[in-house]
Amino acid sequence: MDKVVSIVSPCYNGEKYLSSYLNSVLEQTYPEIELILVDDASTDATAEIVKQYETLFKNKGYTLIYIKQESNKGQAAAINRGLKIFSGNFFTWMDSDDIYYNDAIQKKVEFLEKNTEYDFVLNDGEIVNEKDLCTRVGVLKRQKPSNNDNLFKDLLDENNVVFTPGVIMVRADALKRAIPNLSIYESREGQNWQLMLPLAYSLKYGYLDEILFKYVVHNGSHSHMKRLYERQIERRDNFYVLQKETISKITDMPKSEKEYWIQYSYKKQLKEKYILTLKNRRRKDYAAYKKEMKKYDVDIPEKMPYDFYQIYIILRKIKNKLKRNLMK
Q1: Distance between CA atoms of 211 and 19, rounded to whole angstroms?
Q2: Confidence of residue 306 (pLDDT cuts 50, 70, 90)
Q3: What's the rounded Cα separation, in Å, for the pair 231 and 121?
Q4: Does the predicted model carry a pTM greater than 0.70?
Q5: What is d(CA 183, CA 26) in angstroms, rounded to the nearest whole number?
Q6: What angle do CA 112, 115, 116 make, to 5 degrees?
Q7: DSSP secondary structure string for all residues of 285-320
């Protein structure tokens, strides 16, 4: 009997794209799949679409578990529902608006079965637009570092990492070692850091250098919408909170190391907020964040398009000088 792969997929108002995702699961070449679809209080026809697939999944020999949350709680809360009930030997999570290649699950299982020293595997993906699913517009790939391969640090740095869930499959027993209570911090900013940071710190990972899924870009989606400055700042604050909560719960990380990485996260988000003040020309916030960065001995980015605050000071001096000359 083949080992079971559990897929947990949050979904909210997915009537426009859910069929494409469910079809991609049904078209998998791997024989044992358990799909847990967590409906985050959708108000459209999501439930009706899932119902249409129940017989198709049964006929394929797949398990389809549909859970509908009474209120909209976000993707992380939906993932927690799935974490509590999945029963597979391997675990992965996938956005319900993306699309699997038909051999994606098979190839990831085969990699982990052949490479028993690894607890989870990282693969590649391609980016497509919702209006043209056949045309690749980009590639999602972590370039394997030639030395000092530290996925945990790179996740915090947002450097050379892919946050789309289609890139990871983990052994269930390894997942339970990394996240013993099978629960992640619930934040509306997402769920990937909360899952990936414990895995990256506690487990060994390997690379499968193949594109195995399509990441579908939707105009106006949560991850691509244009955000106002205040919302961007709030989001960075929320990133820090979810990272802090996640790091604090990593069971095999010493307390002193937790303190180090939590402060590291704070400094990283502080720097990102400072850069936002530059991009959005917020002089007062710029001065405040710069002062705080000096307090925490954070490297202030030197290579910026312009330093609008310094330009403001120079222009003000020129204006005052011209004004004095005119008065004379």
Answers
A1: 21
A2: very low
A3: 34
A4: yes
A5: 28
A6: 85
A7: HHHHHHHHHHHTTPPPP---S--HHHHHHHHHHHHH
pLDDT, one tens digit per residue, over 210-241 is: 999 999 998 755 444 567 999 999 999 999 99
Q: 305, exposed or middle or buried, with CB in 10 Å at 0-12, 13-18, 19+?
A: exposed
Give percent of the chain above pLDDT 70.
89
- Tell me the C-alpha distance between 125 and 65, whole Å: 26
CA dist 309 → 121, 282, 287 (Å): 46, 8, 8
pLDDT given at position 313: 53
Whether the predicted pLDDT of 305 surpasses 50:
no
- In this structure, are residues 9 and 95 in contact, taking their beta carbons and an 8 Å threshold? yes
Which one, of 110, 206, 104, 108, lies nearest residue 151 by Cα?
206
CA distance 18 to 9: 11
